[in-house]
Design a protein that fits this description.
Layout: H1 2-9, H2 12-38, E1 45-55, H3 65-81, H4 86-107, H5 115-120, H6 125-138, H7 147-151, E2 165-173, E3 176-180, E4 183-185, H8 192-204, E5 209-212, E6 219-224, H9 227-233, E7 237-249, E8 258-264, H10 266-269, H11 275-283
Parallel strand pairs: 1-7
Antiparallel strand pairs: 1-2, 1-4, 2-3, 2-8, 5-7, 6-7
């Protein structure tokens, strides 16, 4: 039991790591807010809503070394403390009946067997096990890798089935295109979440459906414009609020708003997003359910 307790406690560092990252994100947000308050009040910022669209895992990910050890400990304890199941009791009953038949045959060596009685004889536990073994031999395990994995099709939702995937789009920002999470400017008559919902519909098309998780943003990023864009847009930069949404079904359709898109894991996003932008996004993204 002590081994089980020690193994259980080893699980918590994984969650403690996420908690530490979240607290660091909170401190960074507070520092950012304090810095914003200390700036001149005549600064103008464009409010933007972005969507963190997640496709949840479709299959269970492989067990980690710790999880496999924890499972083995549970199975050992269950075996040590368990009682006999119905199948094991049936097997003992079959052995007892066999012994009784052998004794009866010794005392009555000549005995006619009714053919009808043979049909009424029930299957023994050993017969059932033989049937199960045959079924197991006919079973073929499906590969965890799909055709999309083999072809490295980053636009397919049918890849990395044991991990979360996030939608990343190539969207025009000013005169250049960048890989970012889908985003759109906030309109006065909308709430920030409504802006996020409208943006996702415009960028991804009507074929994709999702469910937004809450009204509060899950992350924040501030981007200051260059001097040229400040004069052109009459604004100092963008304040981007990220909203989390869960993918239901459907896929993205390339439109005038984006030129390309990909479904990426958290690790793969590092190759496409800018470092400071990716650092902010990684704070509220996780493979944990």
């Amino acid at each position: 039991m002590a081994t089980l307790v020690r193994s259980s406690l080893n699980i918590f560092p994984r969650f403690a790591q996420r908690l530490t990252a979240f607290r660091a994100y909170q401190k960074a947000s507070l520092a950012s807010a304090a810095a914003t308050q200390s700036r001149p009040k005549d600064e103008k910022w464009i409010l933007v809503s972005a969507v963190c669209l997640e496709r949840y895992p479709k299959i269970v990910p492989p067990k980690t070394e710790l999880e496999a050890k924890f499972k083995a400990d549970l199975q050992r304890i269950e075996l040590e403390r368990s009682v006999l199941c119905d199948h094991e009791l049936k097997h003992l009953d079959d052995i007892e009946k066999k012994k009784q038949k052998e004794k009866e045959s010794e005392s009555h060596p000549v005995q006619k067997v009714d053919s009808a009685g043979m049909k009424e004889e029930k299957l023994t536990a050993v017969d059932l096990e033989d049937g199960w073994d045959k079924e197991a031999l006919n079973f073929t395990e499906t590969s965890r890798k799909t055709d999309a994995d083999k072809e490295n099709d980053l636009q397919s939702l049918n890849r990395k089935l044991d991990k979360k995937l996030f939608l990343v789009v190539k969207q025009r920002l000013g005169e250049f295109e960048q890989w970012i999470l889908p985003q759109g400017d906030h309109l006065m008559e909308e709430s920030m979440r409504e802006t996020a919902e409208r943006t996702l519909g415009q960028i991804s098309g009507v074929n994709i459906q999702s469910m937004f998780l809450g009204n509060a943003p899950c992350g924040f990023y501030r981007h200051r414009f260059s001097k040229t864009f400040r004069e052109k847009l009459s604004a100092d930069g963008q304040k981007i609020f990220f909203f989390r949404a869960e993918h239901s079904h459907g896929d993205v359709a390339v439109s005038d708003h984006i030129s390309d898109y990909k479904w990426l894991t958290v690790e793969e996003m590092a190759d496409y997003l800018k470092p400071d932008y990716y650092k902010r996004c990684k704070m509220f993204m996780s493979d944990l359910m």
